[in-house]
Design a protein that fits this description.
Strand content: over 45%
Number of strands: 7
Largest sheet: 4 strands, antiparallel
Shape: elongated
Number of helices: 1
Distance between the termini: 96 Å
Radius of gyration: 24 Å
Structural class: mainly beta
Length: 135
């Protein structure tokens, strides 16, 4: 007799309920290089543009998003029958280098996808030995 494979029903229910969200709390990100810049497409479904903050400090680009929601149902008398609150936040940091300034980064948000354009850092010339004339 062959027994069915053991399944973790909780994980399946969780996966079905939160389909599309990353359980690790990380933002799904695609990174590609185009026209001398890096393009990042960061998935942030359910967030509004106002919920998203982008900062640059010591060469670290941090994207954070926070969402608060309250739902309330009342009966005809105005008594609360149901009240729910939701709070969600996520953040992710990428090292982009010290040569990148905040004015170099371009950002747009459309249909739950944050797109960032970051120029590739200027390559430093290989240092060569330089001689100093003696006078």
């Amino acid at each position: 007799m062959r027994y069915p494979e053991k399944r973790n029903w909780f994980d399946e229910i969780f996966d079905d309920t939160f389909n599309g969200f990353n359980r690790n709390g990380l933002m799904r990100t695609d990174i590609r290089k185009k026209d001398g810049s890096y393009m990042l497409d960061v998935e942030l479904p359910g967030y509004k543009k106002e919920d998203i903050k982008i900062s640059l400090y010591n060469g670290n680009l941090t994207i954070s998003a926070e969402h608060h929601e309250t739902a309330e149902e009342k009966d005809a008398k105005g008594d609360v029958l149901r009240q729910e609150r939701y709070y969600g936040s996520t953040s992710r940091t990428f090292y982009v280098g010290d040569a990148i300034k905040d004015t170099d980064v371009r950002a747009s948000y459309n249909d739950g996808v944050l797109t960032l354009t970051i120029p590739t850092p200027e390559k430093k010339e290989a240092e060569t030995k330089k001689f100093i004339d003696i006078q």
